[in-house]
Write a structure and sequence with these properties.
Blueprint lengths: L1 E9 L5 H13 L5 E4 L26 H10 L3 E4 L27 H17 L6 E2 L8 H9 L4 E2 L8 E3 L2 E3 L6 H6 L4 E6 L6 H13 L1 E2 L2 H6 L3 E2 L2 H20 L1
Parallel strand pairs: 1-2, 1-8, 1-9, 2-3, 4-5, 5-7, 6-10
Antiparallel strand pairs: 6-7
The chain binds zinc ion.
Zinc ion binds next to strand 1.
């Protein structure tokens, strides 16, 4: 199976030491990922200092947006990861991996307004994107409608072995269970990484995965042919998300 890499929770206050270590690994294997950038982060969980690190390890870039632009120019793909990354609703929406959300559960006008504000912030720094990464994977019908209206046509979420169209949006699936997906011969998926919480053991695992598997640049994933998905496919995906939610809770 071909694997693309996505990194969540990219914000000015993230753990830059851990980000830097993971980026060095990506650079070593010449992997260009998708990164989900929060336009106006207000989530205290994403404002971190690195335990045991020094500011010399990987200093915070003075110009956050300039740094993101540089990554984009270097072939990294940028998605907008919500607006402020604050969970105000206890909703899982149409892909209920989690039962909280920034977007799902809000009315259409509010969601549209948040998307436009986020988009304006990114564009004011010269960063354009039509890819949305819903915080907590939570979105609903209003999110999809508002996304289309705000000029987004791609979502990094869902389950499946190839990109698919549904509701006039193109979905780029993420891995259901990475270990079993890695054993499959056909298809493609996304490995999701939260660098803020990556441990030394995780880093070893990622190194092994990069060494032994077919990792594609995210830009290549975006060029793959998307198939149509009907209601049955979406129903199966919804159930899979419920199962995954339960498994994560139990483990
Ligand atoms: Zn997030």
């Amino acid at each position: 199976m071909k694997i693309a890499v996505r990194m969540d929770d990219i914000a000015p206050g993230m753990d830059w030491v851990k980000f830097g270590r993971f980026k060095a690994l990506l650079d070593e294997y010449k992997i260009k990922p998708l990164i989900g950038v929060v336009p106006d982060n207000q989530d205290e969980n994403l404002k971190r200092t690195h335990e045991g690190g020094t500011s010399c390890d990987n200093p915070v870039p003075e110009d956050f947006w300039g740094y993101i632009k540089k990554l984009q120019d270097d072939g990294w793909v940028i998605a907008m990861h919500g607006y402020q990354h604050v969970y105000t609703r206890k909703k899982g929406g149409l892909f209920p991996l989690n039962h909280f959300s920034e977007f799902a559960g809000l009315d259409y006008d509010r969601q549209f307004d948040m998307l436009v504000r986020g988009r304006e912030i990114m564009e004011s720094h010269g960063i354009g994107t039509d890819i949305f990464m819903p915080p907590a994977h939570s979105y609903d019908k209003n999110t999809l409608k508002a996304l289309r209206k705000a000029g987004f046509c791609k979502i990094t979420d869902g389950f499946g072995k190839e990109p698919y169209f549904w509701n006039e949006m193109c979905f780029y699936p993420i891995s259901f269970r990475l270990d079993s997906d890695l054993k499959k011969k056909k298809g493609m998926t996304t490995m999701v990484v939260h660098t803020n919480t990556v441990s030394g053991k995780d880093m070893e695992k990622y190194r092994r995965i990069f060494k032994e598997n077919d990792i594609m640049p995210y830009g290549e994933y975006l060029k793959m042919k998307a198939v149509k998905r009907g209601l049955c496919g979406r129903g199966a995906e919804y159930l899979s998300a419920c199962v995954k939610h339960l498994l994560v809770k139990l483990l």
